[in-house]
Specification:
Blueprint (H helix, E strand, L loop, with lengths): L2 H23 L9 H4 L4 E2 L5 H10 L2 H14 L9 E5 L4 E4 L7 H5 L2 E5 L5 E5 L1 H6 L1 H9 L10 H9 L11 E2 H21 L2
Antiparallel strand pairs: 1-6, 2-3, 4-5
The protein binds iron/sulfur cluster (2 copies).
Length: 198
């Protein structure tokens, strides 16, 4: 497997932990909500988006996407929503991910994850939207946290992912649009190198 395939598999494995936790929590995102993706502070390591960049190359869309994201980044460096978000209604924060299967690690945790507090006790970290929608269910969930002992916390999932075979530990996190630009440039360079040398 090449690095992109390893990262794709690692993202899938990490995502499965979150999917199981989300399902066991019983908390569901309201139809059409995409508020977490409107937050400009979505960060990831550029290599997390290598499988996505490869997919754009496969579809013949990589150069076009690189042009779009480069243009976006040249406009402003603050408050930039992820370029991959399909916005349906920005006032109501409605939208969906256009490349859901390829989203990075952070996006897979959106909604609910488990953290360890300073004393080492486990807690749920919940989306603010859930707090309004599921006040009663959340009280029950928190009382029943011991039922989630076998579910890994966010730091454990991240540690396994970043130190896994894809080895992203020493890469710095950057805003997602910046990460996409870096990833596309790298993937396109590798692609042209391989075409010239095979
Ligand atoms: S990659 Fe997808 S899930 Fe992540 S912030 Fe962008 S649109 Fe949202
Ligand atoms: S995690 Fe929260 S903000 Fe994101 S889609 Fe679900 S309910 Fe909306």
């Amino acid at each position: 497997m090449n690095k992109s395939q390893i990262i794709k598999e690692s993202l899938k494995d990490a995502g499965e932990h979150y999917t199981k936790l989300h399902s066991a929590s019983g908390l569901k995102c309201p139809e059409g909500c995409g508020k977490c993706c409107f937050n400009p502070n979505v960060f990831c390591r550029p290599s997390e988006l290598l499988p996505l960049a490869q997919e754009f190359i496969r579809r013949g869309e990589a150069e076009n996407m690189l042009e779009k994201v480069t243009h976006l980044l040249s406009q402003s460096s603050v408050d930039q929503t992820c370029i991959l978000l399909n916005i349906q209604n920005s006032t109501e924060y409605k939208g969906s991910c256009s490349m859901y299967e390829f989203r990075p690690l952070l996006c897979r945790s959106f909604g609910v994850f488990l953290i360890n507090d300073k004393e080492g006790n486990r807690e749920f970290s919940l989306c603010r939207e859930y707090k309004d929608l599921y006040a009663k269910e959340i009280v029950d969930l928190e009382k029943n946290i011991s039922a989630f002992d076998d579910y890994p916390s966010v730091d454990k999932i991240a540690y396994a992912f970043y130190n896994g075979e894809g080895d992203l530990f020493y890469e710095s996190e950057v805003q997602i649009n910046q990460a996409l630009k870096i990833s596309l440039e790298k993937a396109l360079f590798q692609d042209s190198f391989l075409k010239e040398n095979t």
